[in-house]
């Protein structure tokens, strides 16, 4: 279903409702363009003087806003014009910091140099002032609250074309982003304004804030409102102890993989393989898998069992860490399908992650867009519901996990009797399988992301993680209980899924054990109870908090009222219904067997109902985006209560029909061999994709600007880089611990 709908999204969004002008393309003669640039630059000082003294430079939009405004927009205009940030201009430095003042510090001295040079129209000083963010820029009524100026112009010297050198300046400058406290007005500036400043590096944050307070005569600003490109050099004397410890651990893993690769190459060239012995598989795990998938060959490149000679066991063991071997494991494709495999799950798993990344590429960038109103306008597009309904992609993962847990638990119980050892391994294996990679990626995000780039939006001081996470919130991740605390203290914004997944795994035996002990009715009843608990929890919370926002574009807002994300979205009692449907589907498949056949009428009716149900779940809230005042509260509550149940029923039917090989063309598409390598990277890609998104956002020199094709281009780039980064994570993070688990926790 998603495989069909995503291309529709790409097609429709490329013809978005936002009008985009078309232009005729004229072939450029680059030599003439360069020559014109040379002529322009030779006269650049005169041009700057003309611009500064031009009467047009004195025409500011607030003059028009104050005199030509309608009553409808008067409040917005007043909020903008009277905002203290609208009064911060670089020329105020010239008026307020004159040479008569006492030069009591390096900052004061450098400001005097800048002031003097600017008054003499020296090019380097004009460049510094030009880099400032200009108050009241264009696009404010579209939601532009990022008055960033030019980050690169502030930090980099100006290139002189005539002598092919860089313009020297007597002082070094730093870029600072001044963030206002969000106002009380419920308008465009209610989220606060970010203003770019270009000032000498000798000025620390406190001295800059003092200067601004003098200019504005306000005391509400403090140094926490200011972030400068020079903060790291001024306030961090070398990497922290946590950063050093992480680098040591990562260095050890890199060394281990390097030694393993050398050992693997040594075995390849020194020991002749046994051609008569077939490769074996050890079951590579994926995001939604609890145990091995026998159709996936993992150790099929140079397995130790193929060697005729007996190499040293230590070398054979080290070779398991080989990067070459791991790459072979990832990209190996076994085209032989047996009755125990569910190859079609690879397609569902990968397409679901594509959908997750699509939604996150959109939602994670909302706070950094300069035309948020255009984006809200685009949400009226019918196909846009594929983005806002992306929450169902995670429900699909929950369902897959429940299905595989049920099927594999029953298989293990049939091979060996239910025992204490089996139950201990059930819990230990899951924890050991997921945790090391998760924790390493989390600590990379905490300690290394401050060094992952630069830009006016880049959080220089803390990286991509919140203060709550860095100050100790990370310990909840080790216990998988982070979703019981405020989301603002959670490390890695996507890990709430892992917490729920593990918690569902803890309680699943309440249904699994009765089922394998021939009390199947109790197993079915427990899964139904899980669903009822989820429905009752969501309904109770929405009724208890009548002001809780349920709109897809607002559910993560902490601004007013109870937080939907903290109360409902991330809590296990509200999210367990898809997992329960997965258990139920697994029970049905192992009970009926994979040779079970449905008659044509039942199959066709089931396919139609499942498709309609899935489409209703995705598109039924469309009216909330186009109607005024939107859907009723009762309708939205009903949607939140029932939509995940409906989606789970739709995907459960898809899994069941494909499991008995009656899925037709859908089964064949989902079973394409191209999904297999990507499915092996899914877990790592899920963990790392949010970091890839933030690297993309925070390294921008300008705020994000929503256009349909630009968004799609960014999405495809993020998707590709997420899977490329996942290869690195699998080689250096996942494989070493997988090898150790296989060595010491043999199942």
TrEMBL record:
Residue ranges constituting the Nose resistant-to-fluoxetine protein N-terminal domain according to the UniProt record: 104-235
TM annotation in the entry: 244-267, 350-370, 382-410, 431-452, 494-517, 524-545, 576-592, 604-627, 647-671, 683-702, 714-740
GO molecular function: acyltransferase activity, transferring groups other than amino-acyl groups
Signal peptide coordinates: 1-19
InterPro entries linked: Acyl_transf_3_dom (IPR002656), Nose-resist-to-fluoxetine_N (IPR006621), O2_lipid_transport_reg (IPR052728)
Claim: Membrane is one of the keywords in the record: yes
Stored Pfam families: Acyl_transf_3, NRF
Alphabetic keyword roster: Membrane, Signal, Transmembrane, Transmembrane helix
PANTHER family: O-ACYLTRANSFERASE, O-ACYLTRANSFERASE LIKE PROTEIN
Protein name: Nose resistant-to-fluoxetine protein N-terminal domain-containing protein
């Amino acid at each position: 279903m998603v495989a069909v709908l995503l291309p529709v999204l790409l097609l429709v969004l490329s013809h978005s409702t936002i009008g985009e002008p078309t232009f005729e393309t004229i072939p450029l003669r680059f030599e003439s363009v360069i020559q014109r640039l040379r002529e322009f630059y030779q006269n650049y000082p005169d041009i700057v003087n003309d611009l500064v003294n031009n009467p047009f430079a004195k025409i500011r939009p607030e003059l028009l806003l104050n005199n030509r405004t309608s009553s409808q927009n008067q409040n917005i205009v007043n909020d903008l014009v009277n905002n203290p940030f609208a009064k911060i201009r670089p020329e105020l430095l010239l008026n307020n910091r004159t040479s008569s003042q006492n030069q009591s510090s390096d900052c004061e001295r450098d400001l005097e140099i800048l002031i003097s040079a600017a008054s003499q129209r020296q090019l380097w000083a004009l460049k510094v002032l030009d880099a400032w963010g200009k108050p009241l820029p264009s696009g404010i009524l579209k939601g532009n609250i990022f008055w960033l100026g030019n980050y690169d112009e502030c930090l980099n010297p100006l290139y002189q074309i005539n002598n092919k050198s860089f313009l020297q300046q007597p002082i070094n400058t730093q870029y600072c982003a001044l963030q206002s406290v969000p106002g009380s007005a419920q308008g465009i500036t209610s989220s606060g304004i970010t203003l770019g400043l270009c000032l000498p590096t000798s000025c620390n944050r406190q001295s800059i804030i003092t200067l601004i307070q003098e200019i504005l005569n306000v005391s509400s600003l403090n140094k926490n409102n200011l972030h400068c490109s020079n903060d790291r050099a001024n306030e961090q004397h070398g990497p922290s102890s946590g950063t050093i410890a992480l680098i040591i651990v990562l260095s050890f893993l890199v060394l281990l993989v390097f030694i393993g690769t050398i050992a693997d190459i040594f075995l390849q060239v020194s020991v002749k393989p046994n051609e008569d012995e077939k490769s074996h598989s050890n079951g590579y795990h994926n995001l939604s898998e609890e145990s091995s998938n026998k159709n996936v060959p993992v150790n099929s490149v140079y397995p130790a069992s193929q060697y005729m000679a007996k190499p040293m066991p230590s070398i054979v063991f080290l070779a398991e860490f080989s990067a070459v071997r791991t790459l072979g494991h990832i990209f190996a494709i076994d085209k032989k399908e047996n009755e125990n495999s569910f190859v079609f799950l690879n397609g569902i798993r990968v397409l679901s992650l594509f959908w997750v990344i699509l939604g996150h590429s959109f939602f994670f960038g909302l706070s950094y867009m300069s035309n948020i109103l255009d984006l809200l306008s685009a949400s009226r597009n019918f196909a846009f519901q594929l983005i806002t309904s992306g929450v169902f992609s995670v429900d699909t993962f929950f369902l897959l996990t429940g299905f595989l847990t049920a099927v594999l638990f029953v298989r293990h119980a049939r091979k060996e009797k239910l025992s204490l050892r089996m139950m201990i391994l059930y819990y230990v294996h899951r924890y050991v399988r997921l945790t090391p990679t998760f924790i390493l990626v989390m600590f990379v995000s905490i300690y290394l992301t401050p060094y992952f780039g630069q830009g006016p939006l880049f959080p220089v001081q803390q990286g991509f993680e919140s203060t709550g996470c860095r100050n100790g919130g990370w310990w909840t991740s080790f216990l998988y209980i982070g979703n019981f605390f405020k989301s603002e203290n959670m490390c890695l914004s996507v890990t709430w899924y892992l917490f729920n997944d593990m918690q569902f795994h803890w309680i699943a035996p309440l249904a699994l054990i009765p089922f394998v002990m021939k009390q199947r009715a109790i197993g079915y009843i427990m899964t139904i109870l899980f669903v009822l608990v989820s429905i009752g929890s969501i309904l109770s919370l929405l009724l208890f908090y009548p002001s809780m926002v349920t709109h897809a574009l607002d559910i993560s807002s902490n601004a007013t009222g109870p937080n939907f994300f903290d109360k409902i979205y991330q809590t296990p009692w509200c999210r367990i219904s898809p997992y329960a449907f997965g258990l139920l589907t697994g029970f049905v498949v192992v009970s009926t067997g994979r040779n079970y056949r449905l008659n044509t009428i039942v199959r066709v009716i089931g396919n139609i109902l499942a498709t309609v149900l899935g489409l209703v779940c995705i598109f039924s809230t469309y009216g909330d985006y186009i109607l005024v005042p939107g859907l009723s509260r009762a309708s939205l509550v009903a949607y939140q209560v029932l939509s995940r149940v409906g989606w789970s029923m739709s995907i459960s039917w898809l899994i069941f029909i494909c499991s008995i090989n009656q899925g037709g063309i859908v089964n064949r598409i989902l079973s394409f061999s191209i999904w297999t390598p990507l499915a092996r990277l899914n877990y790592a890609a899920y963990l790392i994709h949010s970091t890839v998104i933030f690297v993309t956002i925070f390294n921008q020199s300008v705020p994000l600007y929503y256009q349909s094709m630009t968004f799609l281009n960014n999405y495809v780039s993020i998707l590709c880089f997420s899977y490329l980064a996942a290869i690195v994570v699998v080689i250096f993070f996942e494989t070493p611990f997988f090898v150790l688990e296989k060595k010491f926790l043999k199942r």
